[in-house]
Amino acid sequence: MKNTFTHTTPTAEGFFGEYGGSFIPPQLKQVMDEITAAYDEITQDQSFLDELASLYRHYVGRPSPVFHAKRLSEKYGAEIYLKREDLNHTGAHKINHCLGEALLAKRMGKTKLIAETGAGQHGVALATAAALLGMECEIHMGEVDIAKEHPNVVRMKILGATVVPATHGLKTLKEAVDSAFEAYLADPVNQFYAIGSVVGPHPFPRMVRDFQSVVGNEAREQIQEMTGKLPDHVVACVGGGSNAMGLFSAFLDDEGVALHGVEPAGRDLDQVGEHAATLTKGAPGVMHGFKSYMLQSADGEPQEVYSVASGLDYPSVGPQHSYLKDLGRAEYHTVNDQEAIDAFFELSRVEGIIPAIESSHAVAHAIKLAQQKPGQAILLNLSGRGDKDIDFVVDKYGAGYGIG
Ligand SMILES: *Cc1c(COP(=O)(O)O)cnc(C)c1O
Predict the structure, then answer these.
(1) What is the pLDDT averaged over residues 24-35?
(2) Which residue intervals define the domain Tryptophan synthase beta chain-like PALP in the entry (predicted)?
(3) Topology of the domain covering 62-91+213-401
């Protein structure tokens, strides 16, 4: 594989326009500088790129196909294509950046991967990469989430990871971040903090995006092969923004391709704590070591966020998305819980593909778009499969769809 990490580069300090950067305690500055230097080095190192490409192919199952969803297209009037990240090993796009980060950590001589997880998706993908590369893995998770996300907790343990409960405060994601960070600071020499999306201090937004750019690079080639042209629209859901950035990165210079990010409107877009639509409802600020749009209370604390898709409920967003929004290069839309659940059943029943609830937000937007733009080509990133969601969806919503 040639070096394909060639997209819009942030400044040396990690800024995309005014967003990104590195707002961290002084004792972390040196560690982050080392990670940046190591990352710069491996992007020029053919043996690293070859090893990652080989894992993508033989372990993850890449390239993932692009599928022309003909029945869905016929029903809604546009040509809808799905980038099938749901078919990856472990069932979502997250394995793409977890392998990249784990491989980098190993090359830097680190022995242990550390991270927080909310619903457990990032934890499972990272524990998988750690097992594959023979590294230790410690995942911090709120006690409340541990009880809620039992299957993922079991998966992580089977994979050999240690799951550390965060027992203070609300015992959810924010506390897991605190707990993981504290554990990381105790030994940043031997440990590597593997961030789960295009967020955090420099160089993580660029690095995670680069690892995810394989999605866009493949899809761009595949759809041209299938249709002889570029799509009119690309669509992806946005939590932290990694699957969207991975897809968008290949189309940034194609002015004719409209980029659509889809945020969760949850139960109520007009009420604090009832959604996680950061770019739609937030304002620029600094949190978790970087500047971006975020949902903040008046005293600068992260607002409570909510979405039916636990992978989307983060109160900030990757800085490059904030930049693309201000530039007007990408548009950000919202889809609420009910629309996402409708799309979950629609894709299942019309195409035989059960999507993750996160990805269902992108499906819902693509369906709306198809009705507005008849005949146009829409490429949507199906970021993950819905196996993890079926019990929850049937318990809570099944009756409305003739189940249970
Ligand atoms: C975690 C997750 C997301 C959200 O993360 P991004 O960084 O915004 O991509 C989306 N889809 C699935 C299936 C996920 O597991």
Answers:
(1) 92
(2) 61-384
(3) Rossmann fold (3.40.50)
